[in-house]
Design a protein that fits this description.
Aldehyde Oxidoreductase, domain 3; Aldehyde Oxidoreductase, domain 4; 7-stranded mixed beta sheet; 6-stranded mixed beta sheet
Length: 350
């Protein structure tokens, strides 16, 4: 308690006010290459073919990578997110291929030369639609994916179910002098951080590990996620955390990092930098999940809450960190159930 009421200097104050702070977009390493991404224009589609021939022969290009070259998936709870689309697109803006070149302009020009043939599929754009019995399955093989302790419903878009319950709901509502019931909608919200997603990755051929320079706010979670995805010991993944130019819960999983890692594998020993434009950040980064919520609340005349039941359909997007979910809470005192479900949209998060 010795600092209560005292002025305390922020440890980062001087370097930030003097312009010496190194953010993710400031990282520049000798020989560093620059990446550009080819993104799907469709929310749901099958990849028929990817022709990278022209891009591979473009000026300044050092590597081109597709999901077929790097067929790994990641996810903190369910491994359902590919680094690059392997066979099926699940949201508009999903990375299909990437280019590493001497300059950012060379990389962007080469990316435009990659030809992708798609077969468009039915899309699921709302969490409630995703939970319908006849909804197209975003992940038909979801029940086969490696996952943690999440309870899924096989052969549906429900990737997690969560239930909370406390007390006697019927009794709680019976005690209420007033019961209020209504439905609410919460829209998706992008974090719109000052600094867009950016990462530099270096593949170390001598031990098969990776070094990443990234402005993440959860380095240990990201290290574990990447190591698990690639079948590596976590000791082989090193994260050097830059100053975070805003996160708000949006920079705790592999986003720009996924693309830079895939490219770095193709140019072992050379760092590759990937920085999203604002447009890419809005289309292909994590967002706060949209939700449809039903609330029923019992209250006494003196304001005492006696019971509440709640159900929420939350849409996280096309993967567990971005899927649709449905949650129910009942309480007389309290009870909740949640069922995340997948839909064809950009990632959801905090």
């Amino acid at each position: 308690m010795t600092h209560v009421g005292e002025r305390i200097e922020r440890r980062d104050a001087v370097r930030k006010t003097m312009g010496r702070a190194v953010f993710g977009s400031d990282v520049a390493l000798p020989g560093m290459l620059h990446g550009a991404v080819v993104r799907s224009p469709y929310a749901s589609a099958e990849i028929v073919s990817v022709d990278t021939t022209r891009a591979e022969n473009a000026p300044g290009v050092r590597a081109v990578v597709t999901g077929a070259d790097f067929p790994f998936t990641f996810g903190a709870s369910i491994r359902d997110q590919p680094f690059l689309v392997i066979d099926r697109v699940r949201f508009a803006g999903e990375p299909v291929a990437a280019v590493a070149a001497d300059t950012e302009l060379h990389a962007q020009a080469a990316a435009e030369l990659i030809h992708v043939e798609y077969r468009e599929l039915p899309a699921v754009l709302d969490a409630r639609d995703a939970l319908a019995a006849d909804a197209p399955l975003v992940h038909p093989d979801l029940h086969l994916y490696p996952r943690g302790g999440h309870e899924i419903v096989p052969h549906t878009n429900v990737n997690t179910t969560i239930h909370y319950h406390h007390g006697d709901l019927t009794e709680g509502f019976a005690e209420a002098d007033l019961v209020v019931e209504d439905e609410y909608t919460v829209h998706a919200v992008n974090h719109v951080t000052t600094e867009t997603h950016v990462a530099v990755a270096l593949h170390r051929p001598e031990d098969g590990g990776y070094t990443l320079w990234t402005p993440t706010d959860r380095p240990f979670q990201m290290r574990s996620e990447l190591a698990s995805a690639l079948g590596l010991d976590s000791g082989l993944v090193r994260l050097i955390v830059a100053e975070v130019g805003g996160s708000f819960g949006g920079k705790n999983t592999l986003i720009a990092e996924a693309v830079s890692v895939a490219l770095s594998r193709r140019v072992a020993g050379t760092p590759v930098r990937v920085e999203f434009s604002r447009e890419e950040d809005l289309a292909a980064s994590r967002v706060r999940m949209p939700a449809h919520i039903k609330l029923k609340t019992g209250v006494k005349a003196d304001g005492t809450l006696t019971a509440r039941s709640a159900s929420a359909s939350k849409s996280n997007g096309q993967a567990s960190c971005r899927s649709a979910s449905s949650r129910t809470v009942e309480a007389s005192t309290e009870d909740t159930t949640s069922q995340p479900a997948s839909r064809t949209s950009s990632p959801g998060g905090v």
